[in-house]
Amino acid sequence: xxxxxxxxxxxxxxxxxxxxxxxxxxxxxLIYLPDxxxxxxxxxxxLIVPSQLNERxxxxxxxxxxxxxxxxxxxxxxxxxxxxxxxxxxxxxxxTNFWWWKEKGASSGLVLAxxxxxxxxxxxxxxxxxxxxxxxxxxxxxxxxxTTDDGGAVLYVDKISTAGTWIVTTxxxxxxxxxxxxxxxxxxxDGFLPWLAQGKIS
Length: 202
Known about the structure:
About 25% of the residues lie in helices and about 20% in strands. The chain is built from six helices and ten strands. The chain has helices at about 10-20, 20-25, 55-60, 60-70, 175-180, 185-200, and strands spanning about 5-10, 25-30, 45-50, 75, 90-95, 110, 135, 145-150, 155-160, 165-170. The chain has an eight-stranded mixed β-sheet with strand order 2-1-3-4-10-9-8-6, with helices on both faces. Strands 5-7 form a two-stranded antiparallel ribbon.
C-alpha cells in the first residue's frame, strides 16, 4: 500500500475529513501546512494537497511540492486551484451553479472521458457529481478522466509535466464532507482514497 501524506490546514473541514477513521487508516501523516517547508517527504509515495489552503503558504511551498513530484512522487490536488502552482496549469474560472439539479431536464454536464481507467473501478461518475467551480485545460498528453461536455477537465492525470504523477481535480470533497454536506463527496472519498493507496495509478 502506498504511503500517503496530507497537507493539513487545521481548519474544521480538514480536521473532520482527514481524521475520519475510515479515511485516516489510509493516511500515514498529516503535515501541518506552516511546517511543510521543513518536513521530509522522502518516505511518502503520495502527497494530497487539499482545497481551501492558505494561498501565501501554498505558493511558498510550490517548489517543495514540485521537487517531490520530480522525484517520482504522486501529487493529488483537490480544487478549485486558481493559483499558479500546478505544472503547466491552465485554469478557467466558471460560474458555479449550486442548484443545477433543480432545473428542468437537469444535467450536470459531466462526462466520463476515460471510462476504462482503474479509478472507475472505485468510483462512479455520480460519486464525482455535485457542482463545478471551473475547469482545467491540461497539457497535451495528460489523461482527462472526467470532463465537462465541452472538454474542460474536472479530473485529469498528468504524467508529462514532471517525473512524477499529478492527479488534479476541480472537485472539493474534503471541504464538503468535512462540512457535513453533499453526500456524493463521502462516496467519492470512500473510493478515491483506497484507489490512491492501492489502485493502478501508473
